[in-house]
Design goal:
Order of helices and strands: HEEHEHHEEHHHHH
Helix content: 40-55%
Strand order of the largest sheet: 3-2-1-4-5
Cofactor: Mn(2+); Mg(2+)
Main location: cytoplasm
Strand content: 5-15%
EC number: 3.1.26.4
InterPro entries: RNase_HII (IPR022898), RNase_HII/HIII (IPR001352), RNase_HII/HIII_dom (IPR024567), RNaseH-like_sf (IPR012337), RNaseH_sf (IPR036397)
Largest sheet: 5 strands, mixed
CATH topology of the largest domain: Nucleotidyltransferase, domain 5
CATH class of the largest domain: Alpha Beta
Function: Endonuclease that specifically degrades the RNA of RNA-DNA hybrids.
Length: about 220
């Protein structure tokens, strides 16, 4: 499902739960699922059920400065919020989907007050709560957009820390994704503890000279 950049979030998915008496609706979103390094980060946010308008948007539609500013607004107005990471060892053990689910469950368990229903960005969690999981919910739902802002800004902060711990890999710039500079650094410097060894490009590099990378030049 492609959502035009001009589309703004609203309360449509939350209202479906409100009509059933579930007023504490948590939005859930993640950042970093496709990266080769660093954690996958999941945020859960319960916004006040007042149907107010917010400036929140899918974090991918905003500049870094906007994301930081709006993430602070989320933390100020939310009834409850939580952010959890699944680190590379957990990702390698559970696979990326399993680790994302595990981090989501940890984040939801920390919400106080507890949610009565969930809206996720196509993340079909196994929960006893009523769940809506439409694609691109981060662009369509205020609650999920708020969660996307917390997940993205917190993961970016972690990647800046990893950049300081592992200089030369460019984590501050590409945030652990498969950019050409990241591929080149892996060939030159090798795999770090921040990398997801179960991901095919990293696994191939560890297996020997014949890898999926090809010539970094």
């Amino acid at each position: 499902m492609t959502v035009p950049p001009s589309v703004t979030p609203d309360w449509s998915f939350e209202r479906e739960h409100w009509r059933r008496g579930h007023f504490r609706v948590a939005g859930v979103d993640e950042a970093g699922r496709g990266a080769w390094a660093g954690p996958v980060t999941v945020a859960a946010v319960i916004l006040p059920g007042s149907a107010a308008e917010y400036p929140f948007r899918d974090s991918k539609q905003l500049s870094a400065a906007q994301r930081e500013r709006y993430a602070q607004v989320v933390r100020e107005v939310a009834l409850a919020w939580a952010v959890e990471h699944a680190w590379p060892d957990e990702i390698d053990r559970l696979n990326i989907l399993g680790a994302t689910h595990a981090a989501a469950h940890r984040a939801l368990a920390r919400l106080n007050p507890a949610p009565q229903a969930l809206v996720t960005d196509y993340l079909k969690l196994r929960v006893s709560l009523p769940l809506s999981a439409p694609p691109r919910a981060d662009a369509l739902s205020y609650s999920v957009a708020a969660a996307s802002l917390l997940a993205k800004t917190e993961r970016d902060r972690v990647m800046l820390e990893l950049d300081a711990q592992h200089p030369g890999y460019g984590f501050a710039g590409h945030k652990g994704y498969g950019a050409p500079a990241h591929r080149a650094a892996l060939h030159e410097r090798g795999v770090t503890g921040a990398h997801r060894r179960s991901f095919a490009p990293i696994r191939a590099l560890l297996s020997g000279p014949a890898s999926l990378f090809g010539d970094p030049d």
